[in-house]
Amino acid sequence: MKATAKAKAHTNIALIKYWGKRNESLILPTNNSLSVTLDGFYTTTNVSFDEGLTHDTFYLNDEVVEGEQYHRVTQFLDLVRQLAGKPIHAQVRSINAVPTAAGFASSASGFAALAAASSRAIGLDLSDSELSRLTRQGSGSACRSIFGGFAEWEKGEKEDGSDSFAIQIAPKDHWDIRVAAVVLSSKMKKVSSRAGMRRTVETSPFFNGWIESIPSDLEAIKQGIANRDIEQVGAIAEANCLKMHATTLGASPPFTYWLDTTVTVMQTVQQLREQGIPAYFTIDAGPNVKVLYLPEHEQLVQTTLREVPGVTDVKLSRVGQGITYLGDETIV
Ligand code: 2P0
């Protein structure tokens, strides 16, 4: 038997950050997070389960992948095989339209597309919630990419993670908000988000303050999204990002993801606001900055960001859709 399915998933950017795990192996977070799915950056993945294969293979952008990245894919396929009760191997082919230099976690779209294609190919018929819960075990932020528009990852309470998955807050067409990914020139050695989160949870005295601040941020941002209020959504997202990054400064040893140009871009965004342009930044586990703005300010925001010394590129995106399936085939 050979069964193939292909799926496309978009990356997402968190407006309320996922920062901290309560269970590392099940990937269970310490707090709810909320994101917007992005149209411009995605992964397309083809999974082919074949009884004739003796092991899994993984190709990314037509090149064979080995080592840690391969290991994470086969571990994830083990979960899918276990769920389906079918011990068959697969060939996985992924094409990433997520510029890694833009500082987007390609793991979000990558694991969402892998989860969708593999579960479908092996014959699992999962609801969106079930698919999100499965996807979470590949990479936490990926569970939000099952949905288009705005999604919230409910951290859940249970030890087994059965209540930890994302739900949609508002669909793609609810609000035409834009995101600019500001790319900086950097060869800085990065602390991975996994290692950074772990160090923060274990050592930062600011971590409890971060966790305590989440419920009110979530409530306010959801109200802002419902009202399509860029000032409210932007101000909460920016403050939430700053609180997340503040926890890293309290870690031992301390660290930051910011470069000098990161701070210059943050100040440029704040200057845009002083001129009456509602633009707000957010930053993930890296030096690049994402800027939220409205369509009518696209030209000005883009031009202003491109002029900042040290900025090498600015990539624009709209709100994106959730998982799409691009066809499957079963040969008995
Ligand atoms: C987020 N980040 O909410 C946060 C903000 C980085 C900063 O999710 O260990 O690659 O695979 O669950 O999902 C990056 O972490 O980590 C991330 P794992 P992931 O988008």
In brief:
The chain is α+β, with helices and mostly antiparallel strands.
Structure notes:
The protein is α+β, with helices and mostly antiparallel strands and 332 residues long. It folds into two domains: 2-173 and 327-331, Ribosomal Protein S5, domain 2, CATH 3.30.230.10; 178-317, 2-Layer Sandwich (Alpha-Beta Plaits), CATH 3.30.70. It contains eight helices and 14 strands. The chain has helices spanning 67-84, 106-121, 128-136, 193-203, 207-226, 230-249, 260-274, 298-306; strands at residues 2-16, 21-23, 28-29, 33-50, 57-60, 63-64, 89-97, 150-154, 165-170, 178-184, 280-282, 289-293, 311-317, 324-331. The strands form three sheets. Strands 1, 4, 5, 6, 7, 8, 9 and 14 form an eight-stranded mixed beta sheet that branches. The model has no long low-confidence stretch (mean pLDDT 95). It binds ligand 2P0. The site of ligand 2P0 has 15 residues, from helix 4.
Q: How many distinct domains?
A: 2
Oligomer: single chain
Spatial extent as radius of gyration: 20 Å
Per CATH, the architecture of the largest domain is: 2-Layer Sandwich
Bound molecules: ligand 2P0
Q: State the name of the first-level CATH class of the largest domain.
A: Alpha Beta
What is the overall shape? globular
Number of strands: 14
Order of helices and strands: EEEEEEHEHHEEEHHHHEEHEE
